[in-house]
Fold each of these.
Amino acid sequence: MATEAAPMDEKAKRMRDLLSSFYTPDPSISTPTSSISTSFDNINGPSFDADQYMDLMIKKSNLDVLLQRHVQMAAEIKNLDTDLQMLVYENYNKFISATDTIKRMKSNIFGMEGNMDQLLHKIMSVQSRSDGVNTSLFEKREHIEKLHRTRNLLRKVQFIYDLPARLQKCIKSEAYGDAVRFYTGAMPILKVYGDTSFKDCRRASEEAIETIIKNLQTKLFSDSESIQARAEAAVLLKQLDVPVDSLKDKLLEKLEQSLDGLQINPDEASKLAEHNVSSKDEESNNQGPAKIHEDAVRGFSEAMRAYREIFPDSEERLFKLARALTTTHFENMELYIRKRVSAADFLGIFREYSAFPPADVLLLSNSLRIIWEDVVLMDEVLPEAALSDLSAEAAQVTLKQFVARTFSHLQQDISDTLLKFDINQKEVVDGEVLKVVLEASGKAEFRQLLDENTGIFVKMNDLLIGWIQKGFQDFFSEKIHAGLILVLAQLSVVIEQKVIPRIAEEITASFSGGNSQAFIPGELCRVFHAASEKLLQHYIDTRTQKISNVLRKRFKTPNWVKHKEPREVHMYVDMLLQQLEEVGKEVKQILPQGTFRKHKRSDSNGSNTTTSSRSTTLHSDKMARSNSQRARSQLFETHLAKLFKQKVEIFTKVEFTQESVVTTTVKLCLKSLQEYVRLQTFNRSGFQQIQLDIQFLKAPLKETVEDEAAIDFLLDEVIVAASERCLDATPLEPPILDKLIQAKLAKSKEHNNNNKTTVSS
Amino acid sequence: MQGGSSGIGYGLKYQARCISDVKADTDHTSFLTGTLSLKEENEVHLLRLSSGGSELVCEGLFSHPNEIWDLASCPFDQRIFSTVFSTGESFGAAIWQIPEPYGQSNSSTLDCVASLDAHVGKINCVLWCPSGKSDKLISMDEQNLVLWSLDSSKKSAEVVSKESAGMRHSLSGGAWNPHDVNSVAATSESSIQFWDLRTMKNVNSIERAHVRNVDYNTKREHILVTADDESGIHIWDLRKAKAPVQELPGHTHWTWAVRCNPEYEELILSVGTDSAVNLWFASASSEKQASERSAEASRQRVNPLLNSYTDYEDSVYGLAWSSREPWFFASLSYDGRVLN
């Protein structure tokens, strides 16, 4: 093949095409590749034209390239030839091995048919033999089956005949469950053959069953039996086709009756409690009715549970019952509250009243707690009845009523006391009453209400507080009495400081989950704090307004320019002190004492004291010298003194302490005094009068007030203002001043041997 | 005083109570103050804010024969002003003219234009008609209200009408309604009285005890601001005089004076005897924004007090907004310090 050189190219190409068409099973793959690479210089392409290729080569390349190309092509052709030879040999080998295999198969097939025939014959004989065996055993088997059936029938007959006796035995041993099972088993047979052969038997068994039913019914109705036993009895009765519904109705009726009995209980309890309150040993006796009540309710809930288990389909009726119970409970409560409040109304004497609210609240909270416990019990039994919601609602209403009533009552009470106060002018009594009312109404009420940390209270605490606040506002608009305002201020402080944290605590205790969004203690705290501050401010305002009126009258009326020689301390000082004393008393009774104690300032040598002493020395210096000095230099001196004195903070924030409130009031009054003085023009006597009054004021004011420096400063300011506004500022001689003050003191001692502290000026 | 807490200060030699904005001076921001000293020679200071707004310059210093309790600048002639003065025992009121080339000589004397001498009791204040060109004046003493007609060229003032408010009401001060030249509000012991100047009759009153000072809102009709001794600042709508439209807490002691800003209706300035000057923001009470009011009111409650200037060491009595530059105000404390 490779020997011929000239047509070698074409030959090789044909060969290759053939080979490629043979080896590539899918020509569609080979054709696109060849078509894609269609070009003249692609030797492997199907559209290769050797002549054209040659022409192209000759035209394009020089001799060297052509030679090189020639050599390369010759090598390629040689390679292809060897490849072809290899392929031919391999194909031949495969063909030879295939013929060998066919030859071997032919020899193996011989003799197979005979074996098959033999096998068929053997199977046929096996089949005929098994048929023979089957026919020979058939008769015996039939006989056995018959015998078995007879035996079963006999057994059944025996059972039915035994049934009465067995039932009796069951009755004796109270195995009603077995008895019912037996009876229901025998029922179909008895029904079919009962009229003929088993007549006696049937009658006897029915009798037995009747006794069983009777027994079961008694069992069902007897409360002494356990719930399970009763439930079983009910189930058995149902199996015996006894009309259970009528039974159920009967039972429920009975339950209702017992409920009626239960409702009487709270009434009795409240009556009892009322009685006990008036005999003033409520606590021990309160427990009695409560316990009775609790037992009753517990029994009720037990019964409920039992019925629920016995008659699972009768829930609705039970719901109704439970709801009725709670509503009647709350109705009772309302009635009871009304009674309580009106009862308290009749007792006009406030001292006795003061004992009442706690008892009242105690009772209320007790009964509320009881009800809540009941509800919880019942709720366990009947979770679907939504009793807790119902009762929460009802309790809300009740509490609302209660708070409203208490408030109206409180209001009335306070107005009563105020009336009395007006008549008697007994300040001490009034103050005590204020305190009592505060304690009674405030602490007792709120604390006790909130002490009851059952969930129901937690739910409605914020509501409660809302009402209370509203109550305050209503209250506030109607009554304007300074003491009252103070009480309210203190009350809100109490709420803020003690009640709210407690509520918050309880909320976190009872709802560890995220259920407490409705109640924001911080917010409430803020509200109450603001309210209390406002109230306090208002208190001070009203007080200072009063005093300011006194001062205004004092300064507007006389002609200061034509004032006469001062003979004694003016009346208004007394009035001023009296007012301040009043404030002090009120404050003392209501507000807590501050940390600043009065005796402290006597031994303290802080900056306060030094400034005050400096100012006083300056002042007395000035007093001593000013006899001889002219007014101008004096004025200059006061300015100088002012320069060196540190600026005293007059208007500080008011705190909830006795001292702070009194101090603020005094400061404001003195400032007003100063302003009034500045508006007037004085002659010498007028100035001396002012000087005398102020000098007299100094000692008692210092007694009452905590911030001595500020008071000193303000008193000095008044004198300075007076001297500035004076045409001829010549102060009184200290001895005369002393004398006049002593005279005044003696006079006031004479007038009322009160415990006014002696002054040494 | 633009937002900052430390203003421009100016010290008077003596105590003083009153300061007034010179409305007629359109070229400068000027104020007039008068001192209050029993024994010394009293002075009237003409203060001018320097062009840079950084300094308060004394442009004129004039001696005044008696201590000055009230001072008001004439709205149409910057050289004319009125004073209420006291000699210690008796009161008088007069209208003065600043002599022509003022500022050169210290303690030059003032020309007395007219003396308002129809009063017997304690004179409280003199009010200029706010309409500008009118030459009407009102002076008030404790019992009487006198309407004057001023003729500055003839240097005379004539009593036009006079009406007694009665012994029971001791008048203490007042304000002329800028929206209605015939209406004047006067404060008395127990109420605010509104007088009609044509008939000289008391036409209306708001029951309110111890009102110290009153001012009309120049931008909004019917709105009146009062300052009380005890209960702070109240904003009234004259058509609904039963209850105040809004209350502001005022000062820790008496609120002495209150003024509405001439340009920005929401701004109210008050001074008190607690040595503080408070700037309030009270945007409510415009009738057309009735629906907005609730929302706004809640916002106001958050902070109606915009700023409190507490640079003083003594009670602040005097207060005046600048009418030329509404963001300036002057306040005056008893110890004679003026701050802008």
Note: The first helix of chain A runs from residue 8 to 23.
Amino acid sequence: MPTNAAGASLSSYKYFVTTGTVKFESLESAAYEIPRKRKSRSDSAAAVNLMSGNSLSSPKKLKSHRPCFVSNPRISVKEVMEILRDPVNLVVQKLSDCLGSKSNWNPRDEEQMRAVKEALHVSKAPSTIVCREDEHIRIFGFVKGCIDQQKAGSLYICGCPGTGKSLSMEKVVQQVGDWSTQAGLPPVDTLSVNCTSLTKTTDIFSKILGEIKPGKNANTNSSPLQHLQSLFSQKQASSSSRMMLIIADEMDYLITKNRGVLYDLFLLTTLPFSRCILIGVANAIDLADRFLPKLKSLTCKPMVITFRAYSKDQILRILQERLMVLSYVAFQPKALELCARKVAAASGDMRKALCVCRSALEILEMEVRRSAGPESQGPTTDDSVVRMDHMAAALSKTFKSPVVETIQSLPQHQQIIICAATKAFRGSKKDTTVGELNMLYLEICKSWMISPAGITEFTNMCTVLNDQGILKFGQARGDKPKRVSLRVDESDITFALQEIRFFRNCLV
Amino acid sequence: MGKEIPAEKSLNLIRGRLCDPSFIFGPLSASSDSNYSKLKFIVSTSITEGCNNSILLLGPRGSGKAAVLDLVVGDLLEQFPDSVSVIRLNGLLHSDDNCAFKEIARQLCMEHHLLFSKMASFDENSHFIIAMLRECGLAHKTIIFVLDEFDMFAQGKQRLLYSLLDAMQSVTSQAVVIGISSRLDADQLLEKRVRSRFSHRKILFLPPSRDELDGLLEHLLSLPADSSFPSGYVSRFNDKIKNITSDRRFKDILKTFFNAHSTVNSFLKFIFCAVSLMNLESGLLSLENFKAALSRMQRQPKLEAVRDCSVLELYLLVCMRRLEVKEQNSYNFISVMKEYKAIHDSFQTSDYYAQNVCIRGFEHLRERQVICYAENRGQSQTGEYRPMKLLISASELHQGMRSHACCPAILLKLLDH
């Protein structure tokens, strides 16, 4: 639920209410498209554009100069205010409406299954973005301010992976384009660069130059950077005074040893006749502070907007939004809540939540297929939705590391080696040589009266364990003096081997 | 003559089976819970539904990951002849980003009968790949990327992985990325951006259970009752196999084997070795074949080296060991000779040889890698003064001497005290 103060909340509430209704309408219109198994990509891309285009075209009715992402011209402002008086129950009511009016979900129906999976796929961007309204408003406000004043500026967006940064940037670009056409301003050029695709870090300047002066031959006397700098230091002819929005994704790839490229990029916005609005996106919160301390003294430190990791409520809301386009209920609400809770506690990464939901759906699908047989085609009761146990299985598959299972299924001698290593590294010592490990191994074998393997085979087994990532070898010539250390946690090993009495006694 | 031919034929048949992955992994993958069906389900749903996916196959070397993947890909190519294309990369060859992009572009060109230019730059290759992904997405053709040795791609900046996984986040492309790795923590090696884009599906290849292996053994070694073999021979062969597998000693052999090796590949090597030792006269396998195969797989080269030493060489080894025990960690030929003389003086042994004979003994030992020079630096010194060290441990020396044909008892005593 949006929790901020009045001004922002008004527009956000409005947006939320109208979202639901618009979605239902567009659902009916789009419903006939779903049964076609292989709708072409161009069709769906066009449809998405159409929908969002329609919804963005009528913010004129609302007085607030903050944009609304969708609005339904049929609901008048008065109705909105009425509904807004009872906001808390709004979500619940809408959801229960959905649940009540939805047709039944049959997991055997391939079309339905496909539609649900598609709704939950990471690549499918929803037409509206939930839970990021604040950030949107700030970014758009900043860009608008720059365009209004015809001044350059820089902005830095940071956040963990999977928090909706790139998605938000795409929406902002769209928004800016629409707003500038409506307000009658000259169109804003946009350059979206993913810095991982640059061969050299200085290529970004040639790309910017290419946008500003497309088709102009590269001036061989000066580098693109110098060209840009000279361009921005002189007053432009008014015909070419279009603002340019530069979005640099994964900006930390531009960090070089002397930070030259990064500094130059940000300093471009400080030149007197510069027309760039630079938005940098990266993961590190303190990129500006750590790598660009000089910018502060030059008073052109970029504004920083942090995209926090999603909380449990936000994840739940986003999942529900995505599933609301469908006309049937495929997930038990408690299952969704479990997923949201677990993912929020782990990382707050939305991609992971979507992945877990799809995984749970696949577990349900396999279960249904396996039990296919004398059951009738009619939809059954609660059995056919994704329940808590499916979700729990999907969560454990995603979050559990395969180390424990692998250790349990290793042959006995390799388990003894791991046991010897655990005992050796109990204290402060963290690595030892292969020769010493062999001695420990022989001791354990002798105490249990197992005939030990020879040194060659021992070294081979250690190599196998190294390949699997359980042990780690250091560099050394020859086999015996190689340093060995453990890569796996001791508690994992103890847990994995606790069933076997030998190891339990040994590791005690 | 008539008897040999069926024996050879059966040998060829069984050896051929052992080298054919589809024959081996066919029965292992039959159940619906097996890795084969899981993998096939994920990839085929990605193809039919047109959604992107990424999977990681994990397991020790030789557990059949690449073999099962090949089976799945073969089946899918038959099932969907026009809508699947496969690009294969290997982390040992293509871990450099430039190299990898070039290779992907080359394979795409080959698949779609386009002309590939070796001079294309990195930028051009990556634009080409993105354009091809979009084209294939529009045409509903799925591209399957198989990345062998996945953990090698996770070194450095991981640009290739980022580009591939990022391309799969967009709705225009239709691709499946399958990584194969023997490291269990392969996904922890990924950068956090790349890991976030990876869909965390992992299929673990665990060693098969004993029942499965018994079934596999039967399946491999039973001869089919067709007309190419004389009928009496087939039934005798199969009966003998049944006798062997139900013998308790055979079960002990298998147990000793599985205490050290657990993967399918090592089991197949063991069977191959045993089958190759088959007696061609009788044309039937026997328990001794399996015992011999086991001892071959458990060879200890250093032990054999000690067993083959002459008595003088054994003396020299014992002297070196005694010097080590006396905490004299660096010794050379001269000090060993001194010890040798000391032993001779105190115990009046009959084996006392002159210095030049001993030098030759040393050279033999060095050639067999039982001893070596301790450091490689002092090349200018003559061989006699350079420090040396033992390459075998005390227990190996002990064991070797005990199994030696004619080791004098005094040596064992000298070693012990």
Note: Chain A touches chain B through 61 residues (CB under 8 Å).
Amino acid sequence: AAARGGGAWRRAWHCGAGGAHGPFPHGQRAGTCNERGRAVPAGKSGLAPWVPVVGLEIHAQISSNSKLFSGSKVQFAAPPNSLVSFFDASLPGTLPVLNRRCVEAAVMTGLALNCSINKKSLFDRKHYFYADLPAGYQITQQRVPIAVNGSLSYSLCIDNKMSQMVTKTVRIKQIQLEQDSGKSLHDDTRSQTLVDLNRAGVGLMEVVMEPDMCCGEEAAAAVRELQLILQTLGSSQAVMAEGQLRVDANVSVHHPGEPYGVRTEVKNINSLRFLAKAVDYEIQRHIEELENGGTILNETRAFDSKLGCTVPMRDKEGKQDYRFMPEPNLPPLILYDAKSLPANMNHQQVINIDWINERLPDLPSVKREKLVEQYGILPEHSFTLLNEDGLAEFFENVVKQTQMKPKKVIGWILQDLLSYLKQHSLSVKESPVNSFLLADLLNLLEKKEVSSTAAKQVLAELWKGEGKTPLEIVKEQKLQLLQDQKELEQICQAVIDGQESEVIMMVLG
Amino acid sequence: QVSAALKEGRVTPTELCQRCLSLIKSTKFLNAYITIAEETALKQAEASEERYKRGQPLGVLDGIPIAVKDNFNTAGIETTCASNMLRGYISPYNATVVQKLLDQGAVLLGKTNLDEFAMGSGSTDGVFGPVRNPWSYSRQYKEKSVPKSHSEDEECNWVITGGSSGGSAAAVSSFTCFAALGSDTGGSTRNPAAHCGVVGLKPTYGLISRHGLIPLVNSMDVPGILTRCVDDAAVVLGSLAGHDPKDSTTIQDNFKPFELPNLTDVSKLSIGIPKEYHAPGLSSEILALWLKAADLFQKAGAKVAEVSLPHSRYSIVCYHVLCTAEVASNMARFDGLEYGHRSDMNESTESMYAATRREGFNDVVRGRILSGNYFLLKQNYEKYFIKAQKVRRLIADDFMKVFRSGVDVLLTPTTLSDAAPYVEFIKEDNRTRSAQDDVLTQAANMAGLPAINVPAALSERGLPVGLQFIGRSFQEQQLLTVAKWFEKQVQFPMIQLEEVKRHDHGVFQDQKSTSFS
């Protein structure tokens, strides 16, 4: 990106949420757009501004014991081809049997994303030949997916200032259930491809987001919020590094009032940072290409994280006709609500949407509100608490066990605990200081038994994880504040006695 | 009857199995079997014998020799679909229907021949060669057919079995087994049953599990049952029917096996004669036979009325679209990677795919894949696939209307004519033949209805001719009861297999041992 200096492309665009952490450092960010994401001309050349349009398709692996249509276990990093049933290898004559858990996970996710749940949804076959797709087709929900017409609210900060958060909404077009593919491992030196079918047939929820975003940061923030929701629901572990959450980004640019431009799709992005980078790179590339009189090809690209740019994907060249067809081996998926539930139905056989709805856990947005309300902390702090897995719980546990006010506790959590964990790349669970220890320490501080400086010293000692309590450390290192009047007097007397000449000098003036 | 003989110890399962095996060998020229599972069959027979000795047979089927069409998966025994693609393929699992038969103590003799991947109506288009109709070697046929020249008549005059379950039909017809499994997508069980003079039942879609049946058209395939009499078909049906958790399209309701009553009074029956089944090409002798059968019911007091199924005539063209589309999809898995034939071509994965599929599939399969993919193209989908689905609905609705009007069972011919000589049959291509031969059977698959072929008479050429009864969904008991009554009335003659006699010792010429129930 550094080579793309100055010039016409600069005038282009800017998201409400730009800033120092934007994808184009050294001030190469282009124009500005307001908080609603509309483009505003940067002025320089006076040409019409470009409006970037970003839509996402997100594949979330369903957290379930077994696969979508077979009984094989779902497990990350198992020995190759050790989790493959006859159906997963598409042996002739095998048939799909829908996994109830996967349907429930999709319903939960749909409800959490404000979707309407289709009481009748259908499965389709999507055909293409690929080594890791043993049946030659993927079973998906092309015609009538399980959930449609939802929305997701997410927040991001403006100019990277935590204090200036804006909330945006992206529409959810649909959520569809589908099978994951296997993995192809290409050995170029021996020119062979090895296929691992462990992942083949694992249940996926494809969440299709409408093109309501306009930059990488928005896309990343939306996906981050989705990730938190999935993790809260337990419908997906959504660990991007393990491929449980994969993002395809559709990017185009156009002038206001004109139809959308030709779009490109960046496939299989597996980190939030890369997502932001890939989207922003793609937007810049489109603008530059178009400004230079070129055209954008409707193509599939991949993000090269080493080079920091997108490149066309060779094997997906040309337009594919997937020859969709109804999956004849699966009857329509029928869901019920309290009203439509037939009285004589075996409850093991049916899925009741209302029942699932009543049991949904608090979603991140609600949790944040509750944290703000209950503890009087700042909204942006509630975001940080939820962004780290287990941090909000940690905070609440500390608050429960100490007399210190939550507003003060949050400082210790965010500044001391979190920065230490970040420095050492530890998760909250791995923290050497648990909530009890921190609460003990804060209690000492609150009772004025130690000074705040001493408390930091104790904490530094606690990180070593030697199993000492804060009180032990305080005693060992004699860090306690003196509260006994006589003892204090004695110390003072001792000091005075030991410095006789100075005392005389002072007395004499 | 054989079952009773087994119980009484007049014959042991091992003896029975050995007799069948030797008969299979002596009728090898029929090409009915692709694989003979001699070793495992004898082991199964031994185990059965043990159970009889302890006085604890598993049921009516215990010790009964059966054969299975080679498109059902059988663990440890080759499953080829008569295709190079699966030549040598040994499945690791049993199809549900196979497992159920084995669980009942049946003895699996082998896998029967078929058209490649069940695509055909002659059992002539498999990689292991055509199946010969046992009736070609019957006294009845030989007496009627005038030999042109002595040396060539046998080679020229043998007739086809029909298909695609021709191997199973020939196996039952030539006494090498007591029951056989076929599959029926457009008539593949009933058509060869008619040509081979045996009972061929296609149950209601969803009554019997398809798990382990290598599919042709998933939305129409039904495992078929071929036996020598209707009672036997009812017994096999009873052991196969019912929900299978591995097949989501089987119905949840419990199925109760039934014994067929001997109908004495048919006066409460309403028989429908669909006028559209008077199709172009229907031979005059079959037409006459059909009318005679209708008369038979009428004279016995049943209500017989002409009915109309106006959309039935579109069923073949509609089938062509739906069948090829599903074929294109179902065959996509045969890419040479996980199992089956793989070409040596290794320039790229794509070239390996292409060569594998060219070498593995015959012209018929490749042709259907090609047209199916054409129909599924985005720009054609509405015009062909969706339209065909709508027509299918209309065809099914026709049947619904007729049954709602009070008709219990429909009576139709099964085939347009008796079996054609092989040399005549192969003058037309597979597609033309299938379109002609499925015309009377296909609509029942569109609607998912149960249908059965009952042998009715011999043609002027001394070959079997059958009639078809089509019943209401899941009303197999009523359908089979009517079929049994009809079977009793017509007294279809036994095949007199001189050829078999010559090759064997005429073990199964004893009429008493031809059925097992």
Note: Residues 272-291 of chain A form the longest helix (20 residues).
